[in-house]
Design goal:
Layout: H1 2-36, H2 38-52, H3 60-90, H4 93-124
Helix pairs in contact: 1-3, 3-4
Length: 125
């Protein structure tokens, strides 16, 4: 029973990280597409504006900086999920330790960001 459970956890961790890896690569490709092919990206926004009926203009620089943020975040997601995927399937303690450390650091950054966001919101209003 113990071997069955550890095998199930191993493949569950692998499958989850593999899906996250694929989604991270997709978002990375989307970010590259936005940066490389700005004219088709702009026509996509113009078509969306004409369909929605809004006449508000939009700032292209905001979307360009968002593409850079997407690239960085998706790269980190791909890197972390790679360590989780390979560490799970190979049962490599070093890779799983790196995966755990990166996930823990990401969690700590999220908690600190939430606390800072909540405390600055309380000061403003």
């Amino acid at each position: 029973m113990e071997s069955c459970m550890s095998t199930m956890v191993k493949y569950l961790l692998f499958t989850t990280n593999f899906l996250i890896f694929i989604l991270g690569l997709t978002v990375f490709g989307l970010g590259i597409w936005v940066l490389v092919d700005k004219p088709s990206f702009l026509t996509l926004f113009e078509e969306a504006q004409s369909v929605s009926g809004t006449t508000d203009s939009f700032n292209v620089e905001i979307y360009t900086s968002a593409a850079y943020i997407l690239l960085v975040v998706s790269f980190l997601v791909v890197l972390i999920s790679f360590f989780g995927c390979c560490g799970a399937i190979k049962e490599n303690k070093c890779m799983l330790g790196t995966y755990f450390t990166l996930i823990l650091a990401l969690f700590i950054v999220m908690v600190v960001g939430a606390v800072l966001g909540y405390s600055s919101r309380r000061r403003q209003g």
